[in-house]
Design brief:
- By secondary structure, the protein is of the alpha/beta class.
- The protein has one domain: Copper homeostasis (CutC) domain (TIM Barrel), CATH 3.20.20.380.
- It contains 9 helices and 10 strands.
- Strands 3-2-1-8 form a 4-stranded parallel beta sheet, covered by helices on one side.
- The longest helix is centred in the first third of the chain and has 16 residues.
- The chain is globular, with a radius of gyration of 18 Å.
- The N and C termini lie close together (about 5 Å).
Amino acid sequence: MDKKKYIIEIATSDFTTTQSAVEGGVDRIELCANLAEGGTTPSFGTVKQCREAFTVSLFPIIRPRGGDFLYNKDEFEIMLQDVKLCKQLGCDGVVIGMLNMDGTIDMVRTSALIGAAYPLGVTFHRAFDRCKDPFAALEELIEIGCERILTSGQQPSVVDGVEVVAELNKIAADRIIIMPGSGVRKENIKMLAEKTGCTEFHSSLRGKTASKMSFIHPGFKDSAESYMNNAIEVEEVRELRSGVE
């Protein structure tokens, strides 16, 4: 397989993990906060610092909170403003996802976010995996101008949803990019590429590293929250890419 034809996207949780992913040769960053909640919108300062430091394609997630993908008017206004800020900061795109109560795509407000982001690219994230009919949703997202869909085939792990992803990619027929994610690892990326025909892949490669604090408060010595930081191993990014060669 020709590695140049494959695009690797890594979800990062802060400046340091983004730096590691870039060093590992990633093609695109999905910049998030709070990956433990599935990713929420990173701060203005984080987006700005990453944009100034790295030339790699940068797509911040626009998600005002964890939980479901049903947003009220105030949350939508926050999303709209965050999209505009990412555009002002020179990002390459944004990652969004909104559903209606009945599990259909919120076409009106998703279209509004795509319009606000233009000419930036727009990825529709794994809210897609919670929609009622993925094949109807596929056509709707093509209609309103989404650039790609991040999906695990409506399963928690893409390995279990691989058949649905393959069918989506076949039906998409190059009208939109289908990007498998959730559980993509160096051990399975080649299988996923062969079974789905997809050429873009998303992974978080989430790890932890011990704090460099010299003082560990005895009352919190067993607190991972206090003394463990998010980390991405540079070599793991390289190995993920080499797994699809």
